[in-house]
Amino acid sequence: MSDAPKPPSGEQKAVCVMAWPAGHSRSPLIHNYWIKQHNLNAEYRREAVPPEKFPEFVKHLRAHGYIGGNVTVPHKRTALEHTEPDERARAVGAANTLWYDGDILRSTNTDVDGFLANLDAATPGWDRGLETAAVLGAGGGARAVVFALIQRNVGRIYVINRTLAHAESIKKKFGARVHLAAWEETTGLLGGAGLLVNTTTLGMVGEPPLDINLRCPASMVVADLVYVPLETGLLKLARERGLRTADGLGMLLHQAVGGFQRWFGIKPDVTQELRVLVEVDLSTTAPGAPKQAAKGEPRPRDKRPRRNNKRGEGLSS
Questions:
Q1: pLDDT beneath 70, residues of the chain
Q2: At what angle do helices 111-122 and 140-151 cross, to 10 degrees?
Q3: What is the pLDDT of residue 86?
Q4: In the annotation, is 236 catalytic?
Q5: Residue 188: per-residue pLDDT
Q6: Beta carbons within 8 Å of 54's beta carbon, 6+ residues apart
Q7: Residue-level pLDDT at 305
Q8: So where are the chain's domains?
Q9: Cβ–Cβ < 8 Å for 252, 267
Q10: Antiparallel, parallel or unpaired: β 68-71 and 97-101
């Protein structure tokens, strides 16, 4: 009896990432890797959807031939209004994963699970006895991180931002565990923190560096949501000091698991092979020479992942 995999059968299922522009997204690379690995008759595509056309497009997502999809900048907040969001999507204020439950188009935010799964894989036991965490930034990525840390029962979460008014909504949403702090307070707060998370775009290719003094306990874990470059200045500094770290690429890969599982009923593995595949893709095009834009979309200026914007949307896509 042959052990060769059986060819895919049945009607092809299609999923897409909806973005504007869409050419920067690594989601097709990740999901099509898993589709091939599990020998599914399916395809993951890019859909470049301008903001003014997104409501109508997502309303008729099934009619466009899709069983679900991902949404990223600039649609992650708008998606809440045109789907049935779960608790975490509402709490974070953004949805990135859509799927059909019968005729209902539901949505969630997998950045929460992606953040936690990445830390669990890269720095096992990171939350054991963790009392205090420091989160840099107050955008969509910060909201996902705060939600995740509350799930792991972290008692004190400092949200550090240059403009405290921008962080007020996070404290209002998540309550007494959240404490707001000004940027100049960072060094003093790190002395008592067990986890530091950068959710800003500082340190990303094309952005200013993150200037920080890591005066902290030797047991502190450092996570950075930025994944271009793969090793940010913050992670390099932390590793030089012997601190355990979790990078942004790991979160990008782990946040993709939830969508794939909802669409195809299979929980895929985040393997070293997949990570290398995406690393190579990230490294083959230098900043200033982006991937080819999808038909009809504006050509992105460079290789950077889409940055946090005024609407507070996150980095992953």
A1: 1-9, 285-317
A2: 60
A3: 97
A4: no
A5: 96
A6: 18, 20, 75, 78, 79, 82
A7: 46
A8: 13-110+256-284, 112-251
A9: no
A10: antiparallel
Contact 255, 316 (CB under 8 A): yes
Q: Which two tokens stand for residue 24?
A: 């920067």
Which numeric CATH code is attached to 112-251? 3.40.50.720
Using CA of residue 253, residue 26, residue 8, residue 97, what is the dihedral sign?
A: positive
pLDDT of residue 284: 85
Q: What is the pLDDT of residue 24?
A: 87
Name the pTM for this structure.
0.89
The CATH T-level fold of domain 13-110+256-284 is Rossmann fold (3.40.50)
Q: Taking a C-beta distance cutoff of 8 angstroms, is the pair 263, 273 a contact?
A: no
Query: To 5 degrees, how large is the angle CA 177–CA 311–CA 133?
Result: 25
User: Which residue's entry shows tokens 């830390």?
Assistant: 119
| pLDDT computed for residue 147 by the predictor | 97
Q: Are 312 and 63 in contact (CB under 8 A)?
A: no
pLDDT at res. 98: 98
Question: What pLDDT does residue 312 have?
Answer: 42
Average pLDDT, the chain: 90
Q: What's the one-letter identity of residue 9?
A: S
Is the previous residue joined to 74 through a cis bond, with omega within 30 degrees of 0?
yes
- 160 CA to centre of own chain: 20
Considering 6, 13, 76, 173, which one is annotated as catalytic?
A: 76
- DSSP string of 81-147? HTSEE-HHHHHHT---EEEEETTEEEEE-THHHHHHHHHHHHSTTTTTT--EEEEE--SHHHHHHHH
In the chain, % of residues over pLDDT 90: 85
Q: Do the two domains 13-110+256-284 and 112-251 of this chain adopt the same fold? A: yes
Tokens of 135: 């989160």
